[in-house]
Amino acid sequence: MVRRSSPLDSPEELDDFSDSGSDYEATLKASKRRKRPVPGPLLPKRPRRNAARRVTSSPSNNPIPTPPPDPSLQQQPSSQETPRQVSLRPGRSVDEGKQGISAKDIYDAICSGKSAMVTVVDEWLDSYKQSREAGLLVLINFIVQSCGCKGVVTQEMFGSMENAEIISSLTKEFDEDSVNYPLCTPVPQLKHFKASLCEFARVLVRSCQNSLIYDEYLFPSLLSLLTGLSDSQVRAFRHTSTLLAMKLMTGFVDIVVVVSVQLQTTQRRYDVENSKREHDRASDRLEELQATVSECIENKEELSSMMNSIFRGVFVHRYRDRLPEIRAVCIEELGIWLKTDPEDFLNDGCLKYLGWNLHDKQGPVRLQCVRTLQGLYQEKEFIGRLELFTSRFKERILSMVLDKDPDVAVEVVNLCLLMQQKTEEGLAEDECGHIYPLVYASHRALASAAGVFLYNKLKSVIGSDNQEDNKSNNAAFLQVVISFYIQSEFHEHGAYLVDSLWGVAGSELRDWETMTAFLLQDAGLMYEEEGPLIELMMCAIKQAAQATPPVGRTQGKKILSMKDKKIQEQDRRRITAHFIPLLPQLLAKYSADAGKVSLLLKAPLYFELEMYSSAQWLEKHLDLLLSQICGIVEKHTELTVLEACAHLVTTLCSESYTFSSRAHVAFSQLLDGLTECFSSYLSDLLQGTADDDDTYSAATALKRIAALSSAKDPTGRKLFDSCLELLESGIKSIAPEKELLVSALKCAGLHLMWAKVNAVNSKPAKLELMRLNKEVRSFCQVCQTCLSVNQTEIRDQAFEVLCDLLLLYSESSVRSKPALQALVHLPSDSLRSELAAFLLDYIFIDAEDTELEAKKKEETEISLLQRKRNQLAGYCKLIIYGVLDLTAATDVFKHYSKYFKDFGDIIKETVSKSKLIDPILSAETVCLCLQQLFSEMLTDNRSREDLPEIRDLAKRLAMSFGINLHRVRKPLLALHMNGICFAFRDSPEGEEQHLNVDFLEILSEFSFKLLQQDRTQLADFLKSRCPSAALSWPSVRLYQHSLVARSTSKPREQEEGGDVVSSYRSPVAKRKRTAATGSVSSTAKGSWLTSISIHSNLPSPAFTSTVQKQPTKQPVSRKPRATESDVGTGISELESEDEFSSVSRMRKVKPTKRRMSTFTKPTLDQQDLNSHLNLLSLIEDGNGEREEAEIEDYESDSDPAYTLPSTRHTSASFLDELFD
């Protein structure tokens, strides 16, 4: 009898299910076959029934009744005959019978996936009824073939060998050419194999549920074989047999439920009949019902016996198997049992397996656990049985919302919602706090799941007793959303909150009437709530009009369906119709608030602007909007407001709209007024007689002109000369006016850009082109002077304008317009030097620590970094488009490693673009930047201090050459030759010779990308350039080693003990198939066994069915070493893959030396040993544990995979913006 234990104890308590002396062992022994010369009659059922009755009468804590051992069956003798070899014939055995379906027929039907499974099973049942041993043999061979094994079980083997011996023999004949087997082979022919195999098992059980399932021969024999296979070292055997056993168990559970219902019904009818008066009873009817009740009880007990065999013999070992697919299968089927037969399974003894596997280190297993729990929490009648489980594992479930597998995290949030809705206590507020921040996660599915959770929580806050109209409900919902948004303190991420709630709260977020009513009513909201509502409203308008998620949540390019496009068009029309009359009112109310008005100015960008021309009464609203925009420009000087106005001006002045002429007139008048205002102060500014008020007025006017100049052509207002004079005089002054000069730089630069656009679109005279070129040249000289100014804003603006103008007036920009060749302006040498100096002095420097608040300091650092990234991208574009020589990229490449975090994506893109321009020159530029760093190290007398940093940079740059080594062959050859020449360059007279020889250490970082023939060529080139005395120097020897021995020796990192990736020349070597017994490869596998299996720190298992007894050898004394736990789950892996190797016996194997001078004829013992070692190549797939899906450390709290979206652009979108 199984001793009682706490149902939710640690997994180590599974030792209670001891394999030695357990009830299961008796069941297994009872089902072992004796040698049968001829098929005998069916065994009597009475002993099994009596045994089952004894089990039923004894109390047990196990969820499945366990029959005690049958003494009569334990006395059977074991076969002592010598096992025969397995037949290698892949097809049907002659012993299977001359008629009926064969194992290959069943296998082909399963592989095709098109056969009617009922027909296949019926054909097999016909053959089984003719000869049950032959039929069972067909089924066994089908299972063996489904495992991918070429061996066949013959009639002699079936009658004379035990299951363990049969499995060992089959293992020897397993196909070693491939690590794949039908369940995991990714070929179209086996696409439906798993589903068909599961269907076969289901139909087989269903077809036998009324007769053969109780014959005490078919299924006990089948389960005995499957249990042995599930304990095999061979993954294919273990995986396939476990799947079949679990599916058979599911079929048994279904039948048990049916039998239980039938038993209850019959028992009730019996009780009713028995309760009648004696003379009213029908004695024959009563006896019939009594017999039916007895038969149902016997059937249920027999089914429980087989279920107990599977549960104890397969499930409790395989639910923690090393292979995640096997663990997932066990958990999936356990979930089905829990729902199908809750009376027997839905208890803490079975639920603990789900709880333990929530800690599994493989995502698919955790995912299956969570989905199983979802199915349980959906049923109200199960909640009471789940109370102890909920209290024990709720903390773990809540921590999994930050699971590194996004699919798992999504399902966990859905599970938490079910727990919140279905359980009486629900989730406390602090527990809900684990989920709320996920609405801002970058993973859209997770954010949407968190949005559903938040929506239900907010709805419960509003109260279900609120029976008012829909508008009132929407108003209440919007208020609690605003409160949540304010309290969450992520005010820059309203778009992410809206996107998270969009799927579940779309109707509330589209209630524009309620939102605008709140904003226009004086008593609607508090002041601090108006800003968040405007932000959320604008995010909702954008979401509805564009139907695209915010930056960072886009999963590729999504094509909208016709239905989605129709909804999008309807939303745009509704938005336009509602906001056209109300937007001027909103702008008027919030015109003094820069933050709110800059948000409201974005609304017309999502309108169907043609609607302004559709009705005459709407034109007055257009006039009101234009006047409001002009008023806002005249009222504000904040850059965000002016840029929002300029963006809107660009849209409204588009020639595609019929009302664009009215917008042109309005904004032209505005620009004329601003120009007149600026011109009135210009003379005083140039003469230096303007006071502070005049300077401020001129600066603000010029700032507004510069902002609007990006939207409208300013060339007609002739402001360029004025700005240029202002810049020349301002630079000469002692204290230049920052705001004035920055605006002048921007305005003059925009003037020249518009002039180039006009020149491209028209055919200007040659004199006009020469005048424009002169203006560009003079302006670039002024900007070059500004690069030396001590004020950051002026300096930064000059650099950015210079990068834009040099690109716009480059030679590549007029390639398609030869007539504009006179406009080409190339930077002078001094300007190139100034640009490079700016790069080194102001971009590649660490930020200074300033005394600011933490939040303000972070905002300042982000803003500064964004500006630096823009400036670096501008400089890199000059290189990519040929304005600067490719060698100018050395100033960028040399900082790749040090500033990888801030600028790595930009520099990496520049490196890859340079390779497209000129691969060889790009490689030489890479070498040049390393040479410069090496020379600087020697010049600064730092000896070899910085050499590791330079080598790290070389390693990063080497990875940029990609994996197509034939394509980069010439560039790499040029790089190495250049580097060798630099290393042995003659030094000036009076200096030490060959100072640069240590550069070869840096150069060696590129050697692993070389082809073998190039290595030989470079080795010869090195000898020709290197003095004979220098060949023994450490740096030269290291470089020679990288050329000659890298292909056969371990990489440098591995020699130093680090984790490395295999050499590029070949993938990780797979274990080779043994060609002959006793060969060198066989001994190599012996050493692999020694290093992997023998040194397991796990105890020897008590239950191994595939172990071969080895000849006794002298034990090899070894010092035990602590190895990494060979676990497949986060819990104790007592049944892991290494455990199933025969640890206790294999430790007696004496390891064979890898190298032998002579071969002697192997003895019989050696052949047995080597043949067993050969089998170990089947235990795992080709790369053994290296190719195993690595079980990663899972720390859901310390390193979540979800980050809140940054205010910075993502790399992809930012680079697109910078390099387009």
UniProtKB/TrEMBL annotation:
Chief location:
nucleus
SCD domain ranges (all copies):
315-400
A Gene Ontology molecular function term of the record: chromatin binding
Spell out the Polar residues composition-biased ranges: 1100-1115, 1204-1213
Compositionally biased, Pro residues: which spans? 62-71
Q: Which PANTHER family does the protein's record reference?
A: COHESIN SUBUNIT SA, STROMAL ANTIGEN
The protein in question is named Cohesin subunit SA
